[in-house]
Write a structure and sequence with these properties.
The protein is built from 3 helices and no strands. With 80 residues, the chain is mainly α. It is elongated, with a radius of gyration of 18 Å.
């Protein structure tokens, strides 16, 4: 019974994590391409800021935002 449970739950959890990662990366890429050129049109035109980013860069931005959110959550809990 335990082997059957693990054979169903573990792949399901891994699939959910992979889907969440892909969705997060897609959102980061789309939001970057949608907002950055509007916020910094001169910098994008001069090549100072990228108008679109790669999947790897989206992954790094997502990790950076997750770390900042985690730190903000830890600090909020300490002051409560």
């Amino acid at each position: 019974m335990t082997k059957t449970w693990c054979a169903v739950i573990v792949p399901g959890i891994l699939l959910a994590v992979a889907a969440a990662l892909v969705l997060t990366l897609l959102l980061v890429k789309l939001l970057w391409a949608w907002t950055i050129p509007d916020l910094f049109p001169g910098a994008v035109a001069q090549g100072l800021v990228a108008g679109s980013i790669s999947w790897y860069t989206a992954f790094k931005v997502a990790i950076f935002v997750a770390v900042l959110a985690g730190l903000a959550g830890v600090r909020r809990r300490e002051h409560s």
